[in-house]
């Protein structure tokens, strides 16, 4: 779903869905400019996208190049259509607000590379695949105010060197009961970029990881890790890009 400068969307619940062999499981973007980033007239009133919930979702995201036996023709995947994840993407000076995901379980094909884990997502709006391969295998969120994850699990069919979750310029986030597969060769399981006021509780690392949370950017602050089973991570937190150690509190 993508929405333009004058869109006004709120109070929607998506529940009890089974998504089988999809490429993009959940995708929302909001932008303050014309389609394809072309100039657009200033709207009389700025649009918004708020109070949207997803619950009771089960999904299987196809791996790259998968061909289905019940189709007589070859399936062609566009660039950015494979190795996708849940994408919450606002660009410009607008934000998605109060987005909640609860009781979500997604199995991904995996295969993401270290280069993809570090790529910068372009400032584009449109179909989910137009941003290219995201730097997270499970969830990528940019410009979100009020993000809640509760009882969310991400599994992989094959190894992936991207973090499970990347938060990019997110404020007021709560992640409770997240279970996700790590990779000892990946930089981290979670990555927060210029993220503020985030609480991470009762997380469970399903497979070994080098670092549980990597924090980037001097603007990151007010991040708390409270409890959970982080024993499969070699280190709980790492910092880069000007992030300060006092930005994060770790509670046993």
What does this structure look like?
This protein has 252 residues and is mainly β. The chain has a single domain (2-251), classed as Pectate Lyase C-like (3 Solenoid), CATH 2.160.20. It is built from one helix and 16 strands. It is globular. The chain starts with a strand and ends with a strand.
Unreliable segments (pLDDT under 50, ≥5 consecutive)?
none
Determine the number of helices (DSSP H or I, runs of at least 4 residues).
1
CATH class: Mainly Beta
The name of the CATH architecture is: 3 Solenoid
Précis, in short:
With 252 residues, this protein is mainly beta.
Record keyword descriptors for this entry.
252 residues; mainly beta; Pectate Lyase C-like; 16 strands; 2% helix
Write the layout of secondary structure elements.
Blueprint: E1 2-3, E2 8-22, E3 27-30, E4 48-61, E5 86-90, E6 96-108, H1 114-117, E7 139-156, E8 165-176, E9 179-181, E10 190-193, E11 196-201, E12 204-207, E13 209-216, E14 221-226, E15 233-240, E16 248-251
Parallel strand pairs: 1-3, 2-4, 3-5, 4-6, 5-7, 6-7, 7-8, 7-9, 8-10, 8-11, 9-12, 10-13, 11-14, 13-15, 14-16
């Amino acid at each position: 779903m993508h929405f333009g400068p004058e869109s006004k969307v709120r109070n929607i619940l998506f529940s009890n869905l089974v998504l089988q062999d999809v490429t993009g499981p959940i995708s929302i973007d909001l932008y303050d400019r014309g389609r394809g980033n072309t100039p657009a007239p200033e709207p009389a009133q700025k649009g918004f996208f708020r109070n949207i919930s997803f619950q009771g979702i089960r999904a299987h995201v196809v791996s790259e190049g998968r061909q289905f036996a019940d189709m007589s023709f070859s399936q062609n995947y566009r660039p950015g259509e494979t190795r996708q994840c849940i994408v919450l993407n606002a660009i410009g000076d607008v934000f998605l607000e109060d987005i909640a995901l609860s009781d979500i379980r997604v199995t991904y094909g995996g295969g993401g590379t270290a280069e993809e884990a570090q790529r910068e997502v372009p400032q584009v709006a449109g179909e989910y695949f137009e941003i290219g391969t995201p730097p997270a295998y499970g969830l990528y969120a940019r410009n979100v105010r009020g993000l809640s994850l509760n009882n969310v699990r991400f599994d992989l069919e094959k190894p992936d060197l991207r973090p499970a979750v990347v938060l990019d310029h997110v404020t007021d986030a709560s992640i409770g009961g997240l279970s996700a597969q790590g990779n000892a060769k990946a930089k981290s399981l979670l990555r927060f970029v210029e993220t503020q006021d985030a609480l991470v509780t009762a997380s469970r690392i399903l497979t070994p990881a080098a670092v549980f949370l990597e924090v980037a950017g001097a603007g990151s602050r007010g991040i708390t890790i409270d409890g959970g089973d982080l024993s499969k991570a070699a280190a709980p937190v790492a910092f880069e890009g000007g992030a300060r150690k006092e930005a994060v509190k770790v509670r046993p």
